[in-house]
Amino acid sequence: MSTERPFGRALCAMITPFTPSGGLDPDRAGELAVRLVAEGCDGLVLNGTTGESPTTSDAEKAALVRAVRAAVGPDVPLLTGVGTADTRHTLELARQAEEAGADGLLVASPYYSRPPQAAVEAYFLRVADATGLPVVVYDIPGRTGTRVEPATLRRLAEHPRIVAVKDCSYDLYAAGRLIAETPLAYYSGCEELNLPLYALGGAGFISTVANVAPRRLREVLDAFDAGDTARAARLHARTLPLAELMMASGLPGTVAVKALLGGTVREPLQPADRPAVDGLRAAYEALVQAESVV
């Protein structure tokens, strides 16, 4: 059973800031990263879905890692997404990430082709062997079309550099078994399960909502660690209306974050319309203005 938190507890799946003309904005990325760390994020995850990785080039991905590393310094854990539908491309991105200064790799299973489990396992092992960086398996079958099955994760856990899972499987039973029976550190990738997974022994969360409310998400874990589980549950419940609007109302999380923080999204994404923005702002204000002690 793992009690390790290899990248801290509270991680933000950070957006990628763009200029008004659509180019990468490394200065704004650095400023956002510094703010997120100051407001309670232990580490940052770059170039994920929230970071619009399907529409950023390999060069932009590396530039983003370098810019954020320069801004936050050497001690803040930086993970970067490298998963693609092509093993060869994924390996190239992994090596590039290591050179750019990343501390770990977030790797989704190959998407669209829906490979069988033996091929999924071989893919993750190839990535783990490609660099000296630790690997976080990203299990998100709703996007990739392929589950990383529990039996596959048990075998992958034997590799010394496969250290964690970002879990979006919505299978708490399997997650609880794997937390108890393997050394894998489990990070919730679904805000509504941040506290339930943590209560099962999870390591923490990797959150899109943390872009806008990092303190509110972290204080849930703080309350649980302090032994006040009732308060943790109440604080967690307070995050759910905003999380639902941002993550489960049909609006992509990236679009929701940029509706609140400002910023350009790349097509095919489109900015939120005015009713959506107004709803997000109301939910955000209700959360951030709430008393911490409940």
TrEMBL record:
It is found in: Cytoplasm. The active site is at 138 (proton donor/acceptor), 166 (schiff-base intermediate with substrate). PROSITE patterns: DHDPS_1 (PS00665), DHDPS_2 (PS00666). Its main location: cytoplasm. Pathway: Amino-acid biosynthesis; L-lysine biosynthesis via DAP pathway; (S)-tetrahydrodipicolinate from L-aspartate: step 3/4. Pyruvate binds at residues 50, 206. Its EC number is 4.3.3.7. InterPro entries: Aldolase_TIM, DapA, DapA-like, Schiff_base-form_aldolases_AS, Schiff_base-form_aldolases_CS. It holds the Pfam family DHDPS. The record marks 49, 112 as: Part of a proton relay during catalysis. SMART domains: DHDPS. It comes from the Bacteria. It catalyses: L-aspartate 4-semialdehyde + pyruvate = (2S,4S)-4-hydroxy-2,3,4,5-tetrahydrodipicolinate + H2O + H(+). Homotetramer; dimer of dimers. Catalyzes the condensation of (S)-aspartate-beta-semialdehyde [(S)-ASA] and pyruvate to 4-hydroxy-tetrahydrodipicolinate (HTPA). This is 4-hydroxy-tetrahydrodipicolinate synthase. It comes from Streptomyces gulbargensis. The lineage of its organism: Bacteria, Bacillati, Actinomycetota, Actinomycetes, Kitasatosporales.
